[in-house]
Amino acid sequence: MGEQQSPINIGRTVATPDLLDQLEIGWRPDRFTVQEGPEGLRFAPRGTHTAHLSDQVYRLVNLHFHRPSEHWVRGRPMQAEMHAVHLRVDDRLHACVVAVFLDLGDAPETGGAGEPPTWIDLPALLPEGGFHRYEGSLTTGEFTENVSWVVMREAVTVADEGLRAFVRSRADHARPVQPLNRRFVLTTG
Ligand SMILES: [Zn+2]
């Protein structure tokens, strides 16, 4: 295992004001095909969604969900976390994963089966505000260290009842947080 593993606890960060201009996310509401993989359910978009990060273009290949969150903030996990996995258009060996903390509310379980939704309003799952950025790894499979992580700072309250029931009942587990080692976490100013 390498020295740049994910997830991590986000504690001390380096304020980097011009970071905000280096990210542009192009997401739309879309239909998703649900695929059962060895690591859990993956939602593959029908259409094209992009993330531009530091002059590189990445295309969304899947969404998936973890409960509790994989990344921690100042020593604590959040309720849940969405991972939007994008691969670089000119080098599919490199990924940009946009991570969003999800607030599922504290309403009691609806008792629904938690069927995976096939229509997701993706822009509604992107919070306003800044983000953290660091170099790390996939958190499943071979833990390949090929991921530029973007972790949105604010949590999003999931309004879609079906998605909320799904994440409550069927989200993937979380890998334990890994040592930061010699890395820095940058944050928008
Ligand atoms: Zn994940």
Automatic annotation (TrEMBL):
<dbReference type="InterPro" id="IPR041891">
    <property type="entry name" value="Alpha_CA_prokaryot-like"/>
</dbReference>
<comment type="similarity">
    <text>Belongs to the alpha-carbonic anhydrase family.</text>
</comment>
<dbReference type="InterPro" id="IPR036398">
    <property type="entry name" value="CA_dom_sf"/>
</dbReference>
<keyword id="KW-0456">Lyase</keyword>
<feature type="domain" description="Alpha-carbonic anhydrase">
    <location>
        <begin position="1"/>
        <end position="189"/>
    </location>
</feature>
<keyword id="KW-0862">Zinc</keyword>
<keyword id="KW-0479">Metal-binding</keyword>
<dbReference type="Pfam" id="PF00194">
    <property type="entry name" value="Carb_anhydrase"/>
</dbReference>
<protein>
    <recommendedName>
        <fullName>carbonic anhydrase</fullName>
        <ecNumber>4.2.1.1</ecNumber>
    </recommendedName>
</protein>
<dbReference type="InterPro" id="IPR023561">
    <property type="entry name" value="Carbonic_anhydrase_a-class"/>
</dbReference>
<dbReference type="InterPro" id="IPR001148">
    <property type="entry name" value="CA_dom"/>
</dbReference>
